[in-house]
Amino acid sequence: MNTASISSAASSRQYFSDFSAALRYWRTRRGFSQLQLSTISAVSQRHISFLESGRSQPSRELIIKLGTVLEVPLRQRNIMLLAAGFAPAYQERKLTDPELFAVHQALTFMLDQQSPYPALVVDRLWNLQLANAPAAGMIKWLLDLPDDDEIPDNGAVNVIRLMLDPDGLRPHLANWEEVCADGLHWIQREAMSDGAGSEATRLLAELTALACNEMHAEPINLDRHALPFMPVRLRKDGVELNLFTTIATLGTPRDVTVHELRIESFFPADAATAEWFQEHAMAPVGAAKAL
Fold this sequence. Notes:
CATH architecture of the largest domain: 2-Layer Sandwich
Number of helices: 13
Helix content: 40-55%
Shape: elongated
């Protein structure tokens, strides 16, 4: 792991005073009693009790084992290890790093297969990492950008912020409150994992305030359950597109960056929308690119 990644993870230790606090937090969040965690992890309930009270210190292997059982995100497993005095176990690299070339290639292939319909790859905070040609073309059409304009790269575009921005996609989202509430729900999940003072918490506060300012209403309800898929209704220049989106992740990753990637695929919800995208096909194979 590079120095910046270790420094970033180390700064997150403030969210838990020690490993004991981290273990109690994740066990409680997953809804496990000490007995249930003991049964699933094959660690004695007495030892788990001692770990949570600080009377016993965990080994590196035990932290990884409990993190796996509790389905703790890799970023947070690193924080648990740091809190217990161990080095992080999972690397965090950029998607453009040579070591992740195969992953980048696989993502590009998946995005190209989605043509002529849009597909995006975002990180855990919904910063845009990759998009296929139909997605880039749709964004440029909605924002009245020239075809030869480049969308900012290196994750500079936050998809949820772009949807909330009155100068962005919001005027063209017929159901923008529903779409943005779903997006904020994803950021809330990250903020709850990272704790107070984190980048995710600051982003959630910024986006929630922006949503409320635009709605001139009470804060969006973030306690509702996320929908299995999200309907998206776009309107511009007399054209109405009805889509729904699905979110996919990569299974069994061993890298923090890969673990946190989300693939959002757009599908037509009616024949007219399917026909529009087919007529405006902008996606030769291999067109998916980093933004």
